[in-house]
Amino acid sequence: MSHLPSNLLPVDGSPEWMNRGDNTWQLTSATLVGLQSVPGLVILYGSIVKKKWALNSAFMALYAFAAVLVCWVGWCYKMSFGERILPFLGQPNTALDREFVFRKTFAGEFPNATMVYFQLVFAAITLILIAGALLGRMNFYAWMLFVPLWVTFSYTICAFSIWSTDGWLFKMGLIDYSGGFVIHLSSGVAGFVAACWVGPRAVKDRERFPPNNILLMLAGAGLLWMGWSGFNGGDPYAASIDASLAVLNTHVCTAMSLLTWLFLDILFFGKPSVIGATQGMITGLVCITPAAGVVQGWAAIIMGMMSGSIPWYTMMVLHKESKLLKQVDDTLAVFHTHAVAGSLGGILAGFFADPKLCYLFYGVEDSLHYTGLVYGIFNGRPNAGFRQMMVQLLGIVFVILLNVTTTSIVCLLVRIIVPLRLSEDDLQVGDEAVHGEVAYALWGDGEKLETATEPLTSEKNLEWPTVELRT
């Protein structure tokens, strides 16, 4: 510490510009988001899949978190938020330099070290969400290559364009409060495209893919829901009134979305599906994300009803009628829960954004930017409202085109080195073929029965409740 420039460290050990409360909240928010991935999605993925894929699915999430962390501090943070070298990209460089990590960040009254950590967990969860579309058949060695390549050549471009103060969409006034575009629409599109390149699961798995532990799945889903307080509450970069509003709107929208999805399941299928309610929870969380701190509570309720019904329709009805959607094997329906819900949230953010709340968040107050269509019409400035809607739609088109292109290129590059999909023999076995380990030990101290003629995780040896993930 004594080697740092004297202007950075007063006698009390902290810079004069640092707000301890904001720094504490930001570190807490980052940790909450990190817990959504590890252990949240690790648990959810490991329990929502067929038992023979439990271990591999959970480990795909854990590996992605670790791999993104190394890439992020090594070069990706500066590519996302550093000095601009292209209209859509920053200059790659390390984010571990001693003087840099203690310097004040580009927004907020806390050091760069806190900002790097906060943005890291968002990048990591994006890759883990992509994994949800690829569970049950992707070659793990291909996944090991896919993660660093995609976070480097896709995520950084999207983050810089939309979140960096030098980004072209940021300058146009795109509203993406906490990642509806950068994280959810990106992961939904990238997961769908990657699933197309990787190919489908084994025929037997695709026909019947029962969760191995629904109670444990709910535990992972609970961590995901509660962790969203940091996901949306941390983006004002301050322990502010706007952060409080964002957290409240997040939970209101999510609850309404879950209940709407549940009601539709009862109405059309006759039973209250637990997995369906979990999907409704996720679509609510995703939909409110781009608008959490810039809409009023009444708008959050409406967004919840729409996020619980429109993705429900695309998943339960449209999916069965579309040849393209049926052809691509999206294991956990990431396209519907993240691409559809993320796009919906981005559009509704442009529709319901309150100019006064946008001023609290962006610090910009003019007659052209950050005016939702509803407020533009009622305040006599419809042109500003329509302009905001056009910017939101432009952002959706950009994210879709970017991820279709970059994800395809990354998959093609990986395919040159290793196969994207496991062999048919490995697909029949699952975890034991991929890792030499199984999730559930049945004999002794985790040992398999040596006389067994097939893996313990086969359908013949162990049968779990036949609850299907309806996609």
TrEMBL record:
Main location: membrane
Membrane association type: Multi-pass membrane protein
Transmembrane feature ranges: 25-46, 53-75, 116-135, 142-163, 183-202, 214-231, 243-267, 331-353, 390-418
Compartments (UniProt record): Cell membrane
Entry's Gene Ontology molecular function annotations: ammonium channel activity
Record-level GO cellular component terms: plasma membrane
GO BP: response to symbiotic fungus
Domain Ammonium transporter AmtB-like: 25-440
Pfam families in alphabetical order: Ammonium_transp (PF00909)
UniProt keyword annotations, A-Z: Ammonia transport, Cell membrane, Glycoprotein, Membrane, Transmembrane, Transmembrane helix, Transport
Record-linked InterPro entries: Ammonium/urea_transptr, Ammonium_transpt, NH4_transpt_AmtB-like_dom, RhesusRHD
Family (UniProt): Belongs to the ammonia transporter channel (TC 1.A.11.2) family.
PANTHER family cross-referenced by the UniProt entry: AMMONIUM TRANSPORTER (PTHR43029:SF11), AMMONIUM TRANSPORTER MEP2 (PTHR43029)
Protein name from the UniProt record: Ammonium transporter
Organism: Glycine soja
